[in-house]
Amino acid sequence: MTKSARAIALETLIRVFRDGSYSNISLNNNLRGSQLSQTDRNFATRLVYGTIQYKIYLEYQLKGLVKTKLKEPYLKPLLLMSAYQIIFLDKVPNRATLNEANKLAKQFGGRHSSGFRIANGVLHALIRRGTILPDKIDSVKYLSVKASVPEWLVNYIITNWGEKRAASILSSINMPAKNSVRLSTLSDQKQTIAELKKLNFAPQDSKLASNELILSHGGVSTTPPFKEGKLTIQDEAASLVVEAFDFSGDEKVLDACSAPGGKTAQIAEYLPHGQVTALDIHEKKLRLVRQNANRMHVANRVVTKAMDARKVDQYFSGQQFAKILVDAPCSGLGLLRRKPEIRYTKSMKDLLNLQKIQLDILDHVSKILEENGELIYSTCTFAVEEDEKVVEIFLKNHPKFELRPFKLAKIESKTGMLKIIPDSYGSDGFFIAKFVVRG
Ligand SMILES: C[S@@+](CC[C@H](N)C(=O)[O-])C[C@H]1O[C@@H](n2cnc3c(N)ncnc32)[C@H](O)[C@@H]1O
């Protein structure tokens, strides 16, 4: 029997909630063996990501309506997924959601399960009652449920940016991510834009970054301009990191944490006579860096090496690089829009553990930077512990280094640090710090 989009979504959600599986990997595995049309695949994907994104909100809606212990492992994910459809998917009639929930309960619970009765009762009650929110007096709880973000993270954002800004940041991270692409500087950009228009992607210039376009919808990775390496999928804020270097074109550059290689290819475009050495601790991921470099026609400017960046000074002892990028492993809080489960898997402790790794990497790479060379440290998080605090501690421990202000095509940093929070431009959240080492 071919599985429906809802059955595939439910199977994925059971794995994610019960076993802690990654949603993208689990969903791809389930979709791979399926016979679903593209529309049904899109629907299954929306159900999985939407249910995960709004888990706290949906649990709050169901809490008072579930009067019995949900013993069967499929029941809670089924209720959450059905509540998501009832509350968020206007085009799906409630009748269809109820009928399908009934069928799924019988399919996943077996003949003797009474799960379908529970699902029926709870979902009917939800439709009758409508949605609810906690009292605004408890602003942390209110924002936590409304934006479906754990209370510790709401508290963290309020502490650092105040309550008003927190509401804006939290609402922005539930907006759909933009479909941003970066045009290769090695190809004819006007012609690529014309091709994208012809393919009905209605490209618009980014307000934040040069070479970046915002497309009207996804799916560009299956089109000729993507396959021919005329563009790549890269967020606007992410693309600013490499732009902050001042390249001369013939230098040796180290990309210390490079996979999957979006920034490696971007660096290589600026090096007609130079080379970028791309490291990553995971050998397997370097295949993606090479694929990317090949597709973007810069493979002859890139060498890859599997290595822990905390060992670079041993391995490259006696060698030096003119420019070093540390696009560090981080909590990824700036990517909450694209990776909905990050909000549930990270904790305050993670931010501090990551800070230690980030400082360690910076400490080791700083030993192989040429005199007057440039070091860029970047993260895709807005956590102060991983951003400004790392800069502060690094500078304290490395007095020869200083921050260097930088001016990009559409934005500048007067301090040498640039922090893009997701609500500022509707992009991913990013942090960039540019250092130079004095001779
Ligand atoms: C934020 S991602 C890099 C994204 C990449 N720069 C890009 O633009 O496509 C961080 C990378 O660091 C790698 N990593 C983590 N710890 C590392 C270490 N100690 N040394 C080198 N790479 C590491 C991870 O495997 C991951 O691929």
What do these coordinates show?
The protein has 439 residues and is of the alpha/beta class. The protein folds into 3 domains: 5-129, N-utilizing Substance Protein B Homolog, Chain A, CATH 1.10.940.10; 139-172, no CATH class; 236-437, 3-Layer(aba) Sandwich (Rossmann fold). The protein is built from 19 helices and 14 strands. The strands form 3 sheets. Strands 5, 6, 7, 8, 9, 10, 13 and 14 form an 8-stranded mixed beta sheet that branches. Strands 2-3-1-4 form a 4-stranded antiparallel beta sheet. The protein is globular and about 75 Å long. One of its GO terms (biological process) is regulation of DNA-templated transcription.
Quick summary:
This protein has about 450 residues and is of the alpha/beta class.
CATH topology of the largest domain: Rossmann fold
Q: Strand content of the residues, in percent?
A: 15-25%
Radius of gyration: 24 Å
Residues in helix, %: 40-55%
Count structural domains.
Answer: 3
> Could you state the CATH homologous superfamily of the largest domain?
Vaccinia Virus protein VP39
Q: In the CATH hierarchy, what is the class of the largest domain?
A: Alpha Beta
List keywords for this structure.
about 450 residues, alpha/beta, N-utilizing Substance Protein B Homolog, Chain A, Rossmann fold, 4-stranded antiparallel β-sheet, 19 helices, binds S-adenosylmethionine
What is the element layout, followed by pairings?
Blueprint: H1 5-19, H2 23-32, H3 38-53, H4 55-63, H5 75-88, H6 94-109, H7 115-129, H8 139-147, H9 151-172, E1 179-183, H10 189-198, E2 204-205, E3 212-215, H11 224-227, E4 231-233, H12 236-243, E5 252-255, H13 262-269, E6 275-280, H14 286-295, E7 302-306, H15 312-315, E8 321-327, H16 342-345, H17 348-365, E9 369-379, H18 388-397, E10 401-403, E11 406-407, E12 412-413, E13 417-420, H19 422-425, E14 430-437
Parallel strand pairs: 5-6, 5-8, 6-7, 8-9
Antiparallel strand pairs: 1-3, 1-4, 2-3, 9-14, 10-14, 11-12, 13-14
Helix pairs in contact: 1-2, 1-3, 3-5, 4-5, 4-8, 5-6, 5-7, 6-7, 8-9, 17-18
